[in-house]
Structures are given as C-alpha cells and as structure tokens.
Amino acid sequence: MRQLRDSLAHALLTVLATGLGVLLILAALTPAGPPSALPAQLRQTMPYSGVEHPVTAVLLNFRGFDTLLEIGVLLLAAIAVLILIPDKGSRGHRPLSAGPTPGPLVPWLLPRLLPMALMTGLYLWWAGASRPGGAFQAGTVLAAGIVLALLGQSLGPPRVGARLRLGMVLGFVLFCAFGLGSGLAAPPMAYPAGWAKALILLIELALMVSIALIFMVLVIGIPPHARGRFPGDAP
Fold this sequence. Notes:
Layout (H helix, E strand, L loop, with lengths): L1 H28 L8 H8 L8 H9 L1 H21 L9 E2 L9 H23 L7 H17 L7 E2 L1 H24 L10 H25 L15
Antiparallel strand pairs: 1-2
Helix pairs in contact: 3-4, 4-7, 4-8, 5-6, 6-8, 7-8
C-alpha cells in the first residue's frame, strides 16, 4: 500500500511539474502585449511626487501602501526570530549572538570600514530622493556595518530591550501614523501639498533605522548555544 501511495504521489508530482513547464514555455512564447501606459503616467505625475527619482516616487508615494506592507512582513520575521530566542530568566534583556572570535585582521579593518558604512548609509538615504538609493539600500549597508562590528566584537552582544524594539518598529509605526493622519484631510497615504519631500525623507530615515535593526536581528538571530534546545535539533 505504501509503495502504491508513493507511486501515485510521484506520478502526481510529475504531472504537475510537466504542466507547470508547459505553461512556462507557452508564457515565454506568447507575443508581448501592447506597451504599458504606466511609464507615461509616471512621467506625467512625477512633478507631484515630491522627489526626483522615479523609484522613490513609486515606493514612497504612488505605491506607499505596498511598501508599508513589505516593512510589516520584515518586522514580523524579525519578531519571530526574537520570540524563538530562549528566555534565560532576564526577560527583556536577552543577548543576541556575538559571533566567533575575530582574527588579527578584523580589529585593524573594522575602525576603517565602520565609518565608511555609516557615511554610505546616510548618503544612500539622502540621495534616494533624486538618484538611486533610499531606505532599503541605506538600512542594508548599516546592518552590514553593525553585523561586522558584532563579529569583530567592536560592539558587545546586543540585548533585546526596549531600545531595540523601538528602533525596529519605528519606521512601520511612523509610516502607519502618517497614513492614518493623512486620511483625515486627504486620501489615505497621500502627502499634503508642499510637504511630500520632507515627509518622504523623514519616513525614509525612520525606515532606514528600522531596516538596519531588523536585518541585524535576522542575520545574527538565535545564539548558537541555544539551537540545541529546539525539538529535533542536536543537543
């Protein structure tokens, strides 16, 4: 009976995989439709976006609700990691992993790389209004700098306290507050006239901080010594 079930399962997977492959081939061979009107609409509405770069205008203005949900997904993932860290009886002050002991090159390299990471992150945040950059890129660079500092033990193991939680939710909360507040005088997620660029930069700054901390938590995550405590893990 078990062999029959396995055979049926394999046959079903084969049919599904073959069907998916046929659909992908047909999709690739299907002639492209008429050109989209979205690029022309974007060019026409750019003067009302508050920024000069089309990607930032789409992410923070024309498609702000979608970006808000993306930040929410990242925040939920980081919260899930924090929940999985075992509580050692010091609730609210559990340290995260600090990484292995660094070699001799790391202490020399870190003081030179960390200021560059900070300056690059701030530049990407500011430049995002007019050229490639923005909160995601800036937060990623800052997160990389923080993780390097943790691996090189230039920073002590971060603790899951109020400051870390506040920094993680700062961007999402500010984005939500703006969306709800703007709905009182204008359509939700619509910037007041003349305030678009200032509000976008403020939201991007908060998002940069939150994304850096969220990525840090997602990278360093659960302390290695605690992994054996989960069901199915090696002791």
